[in-house]
Design a protein that fits this description.
Shape: globular
CATH architecture: Alpha-Beta Complex
Mean pLDDT: 93
Structural class: alpha/beta
Number of domains: 1
Strand content: 25-35%
CATH topology: YbaK protein
CATH superfamily: YbaK/aminoacyl-tRNA synthetase-associated domain
Strand order of the largest sheet: 4-2-3-5-8
Number of helices: 5
Low-confidence stretches: none
């Protein structure tokens, strides 16, 4: 693949081993569950990246299994905020550098506070968006600490 995303360049710079998983986007099915099925991966091993905004206008990134729904109350608790809401779609590119459906928790314009769902502790590897619709990156969960600063919390409904 000739085009590297910010996420993949970041992994290369840190010399992190990863695999790139490509999937067909022509059917328009790019939601997390569809991607998991296209890649023949368990829903628990493929994560989606959600970008939120707090009542104090702070941006937070939450990374959860594709089969889960973010619990906004638990998420706010995890980052010590009164409340959070999803970042408006129109602001995703401006804030992250990625488009909706192609958002990766790594390689964003800024290093936003990130929280991964606690289910990650059960996994040896994790798969998430590589920074472009149609691309996922898979890597060892033990390498995550070398890539981004994050906390683990129970954030799913």
């Amino acid at each position: 693949m000739s085009l590297k995303t910010n996420a993949l360049r970041h992994l290369d710079t840190l010399k992190i081993d990863y695999s790139i998983l490509e999937y067909d986007v022509n059917d328009g099915e790019i939601d997390g569950k569809s991607v998991a099925e296209k890649l023949n991966l368990p829903h628990e091993e493929i994560f989606k990246t959600l970008v939120t905004l707090s009542s104090t206008n702070e941006v937070y990134v939450f990374v959860i299994p594709v089969s889960c729904e973010l619990d906004l109350k638990k998420a706010a608790l995890a980052v010590s905020e009164k409340s959070i809401s999803m970042l408006p779609v129109k602001d995703i590119l401006k804030v992250t550098g990625y488009v909706k459906g192609g958002c990766s928790p790594i390689g964003m314009k800024k290093d936003y506070p990130s929280v991964f769902d606690e289910s990650i502790i059960l996994l040896d590897k994790i798969t998430f968006n590589a920074g472009k619709i149609g691309l996922q990156v898979q890597l060892s969960t033990s390498d995550l600490d070398k890539i981004i600063d994050y906390k683990v919390w129970d954030i799913c409904k």
